[in-house]
Design goal:
alpha/beta, TIM Barrel, Rossmann fold, 2 domains, 20 strands
Length: 553
């Protein structure tokens, strides 16, 4: 498969417009849960029931709730897809199944039926019933495959092997019933070779569609116990695996789903940054040969993903907007006369560009440890843009107008800068937990030395160890407006008053949460800096300093 054939596109071709699913929760279980079993290790207690069906509605109530949701969200009132989704929708006596299916189909105009089930729950009489339904309207059977690796199937407690999948697919195809394979990438113990083998095994069978999603660790599931060897895939690892998987499938296959989502309150891992629309745009670009590191953000500006730090250079809520709202605006650059700015972490150039847009007279010294970042960043922008011209000049000459680039470790560079020289400092390294060397007490002490007495340091970070370092070095600390996350950023000044809430100040100063990172020689590798903080925290805990300040009570 070289191009994704989305299910929505298939529906438009077949029916002239998209059909919307009404999820139906039948009163069924599955073989794994019968007789007190706990089901597959990743399966939620509700069998992944649609969120609006959590009150055990009757079938008419479910259909009406689905219609009302579709009317409200899409302004559409049919026709529909009857999606028998949760648990195993053929795990009941055939006459009971017939009664349920018929009741639902009489409640609205359904052009299509999708029945989610297991390969070991398709006896001949159920196949006969499905064949009857297939003659009345378009029928798809969504077959739970997950993987073709029998060892993995046993580990995740599926209760069947891949031979059962093969048998079920052949028997369904013999009755001209369309089949979609439900597959999970990232299962315990599996890697790229396992994903490829599953794709190849499925491509050899008469499937016509795939529903693909990442493994999610949900609360109140066996997988959440930590007893299984799993490291959930982040969106980039998953996207790379999914693209590789899809490339091995036949061109005509339909892709019914590319990712799963769940109530954020139930998801332990992975915590993805990208929203669903952004992810689909991203993976579609990868299928077309796009840059795996390039990521669209919500305001239309692109950012990059750093595989080493496993973070974006800027918020996917909007790279350009973040630079303006988290750096240029709270620094008050627009109101300063020929200000001098130290930009720590040039990255993609958004912060420097935002500074120049706020005040074209700004003199900027920008620090960047990895010159390859500029090469990658240059490709993001059209030749006539400010960023492209600036990056090209810095790459070729180290200088562009009143912007000067210093390459190398920022810790070394900052020690050579003159005292009380800068009006503003932008701190924009990767987050303190992965890039601690740019957030230590000792590094910030150097920033204090080069900052004018009426200057300001601004950053997107609100980490307690960072604010702890500022406070212990005599800065006043304020929180800046939030963008792209719940907490705001930080502004630190040598004049003025700290305006953080008392509760936060107590957390920072009266518990180990606010213990700064330390790097006395400004030369330690990240792991040593983290270890040093862990030792400091351990000593303080032994002296009775709490891990977290909870107040006098």
């Amino acid at each position: 498969m070289n191009k994704i054939n989305f299910f929505s596109e298939y529906l438009t071709r077949q029916y002239g417009s998209e059909l919307y699913r009404i999820a139906i929760d039948l009163p069924v279980s599955c073989p794994n849960r019968a007789n007190g079993g706990h089901g597959c290790i990743y399966c939620a207690e509700d069998g992944n029931r649609a969120r609006h069906l959590r009150h055990h509605f009757s079938l008419p109530e479910q259909v009406e709730a689905g219609r009302e949701y579709i009317r409200r969200r899409y302004g559409n009132d049919g026709p529909y897809i009857a999606y028998f989704q949760s648990y195993t929708n053929t795990f009941a006596p055939v006459e009971q199944l017939r009664a349920w299916y018929e009741e639902v189909l009489a409640l609205a105009e359904f052009k299509m039926i999708i029945v989610a089930t297991r390969p070991d729950c398709l006896p001949d009489d159920v196949l006969d019933l499905l064949s009857e339904l297939n003659k009345r309207c378009e029928l798809w059977v969504e077959l739970g495959v997950q993987t073709s690796n029998d060892a993995t199937l046993k580990l995740i407690n599926r209760g069947h092997d891949f031979a059962a999948v093969r048998d079920a697919a052949l028997r369904l195809a013999a009755r001209d019933i369309r089949i979609a394979a439900h597959v999970i990438l990232g299962l315990p113990g599996e890697g790229p070779d396992d994903y490829r083998q599953t794709a190849d095994d499925l491509a050899a069978l008469p499937f016509q569609a795939v529903k693909l999603h990442q493994l999610m660790v949900l609360r109140k599931t066996p997988l959440a116990s930590g007893a299984y060897p799993v490291q959930p895939l982040n969106e980039y690892e998953y996207a790379a695996a999914a693209v590789d998987f899809l490339h091995r499938l036949p061109e005509y296959w339909i892709v019914m789903r590319l990712m799963a989502d769940a109530d954020p309150e139930t998801v332990i891992a992975p915590k993805w940054w990208m929203k669903k629309g952004q992810f689909i745009e991203y993976i579609t670009g990868l299928m077309a040969g796009g840059d795996a590191m390039r990521v669209p953000t919500a305001d239309g500006s692109p950012t990059l993903y750093h595989p080493g730090y496993r973070q974006h250079f800027h918020s996917v809520a909007g790279a350009r907007t973040e630079a303006r709202e988290k750096f240029a605006v709270p620094s008050s650059l627009a109101g300063l006369d020929r200000p001098r700015l130290l930009d720590i972490g040039f990255g993609l150039g958004y912060n420097a560009a935002a500074a120049l847009e706020a005040n074209p007279d700004t003199e900027i010294i920008t620090l960047e440890n990895d010159p390859r970042t500029l090469t990658a960043a240059r490709t993001l922008f059209a030749p006539d843009t400010l960023q492209h011209r600036m990056i090209a000049g810095l790459e070729e000459h180290g200088q562009w107008q009143n912007v000067r680039l210093i390459k190398g470790d920022a810790r070394e560079a900052v020690q050579k800068l003159p005292e009380q020289y800068f009006d503003v400092v932008f701190m924009d390294g990767f987050s303190p937990d992965v890039n601690p060397e740019l957030w230590t007490y000792d590094f910030i002490r150097q920033l204090r030395r080069i900052l004018k007495t009426d200057g300001v340091i601004v950053t997107y970070s609100s980490a307690y160890p960072l604010r702890g370092a500022f406070l212990r070095l005599g800065f006043s600390v304020q929180e800046t407006a939030a963008f792209g996350r719940k907490r705001g950023g930080t502004a630190a000044r040598l004049r003025g008053d700290t305006t953080l809430p008392e509760k936060e100040l107590n957390i920072i100063l009266k518990s180990t949460a606010g213990v700064p990172y330390r790097d006395p020689g400004l030369n330690r590798p990240p792991e040593q800096i983290r270890q040093l903080r862990e030792r400091l925290v351990k000593k303080l805990r032994a002296r009775g300093v709490p891990k977290w300040y909870k107040g006098d009570s």
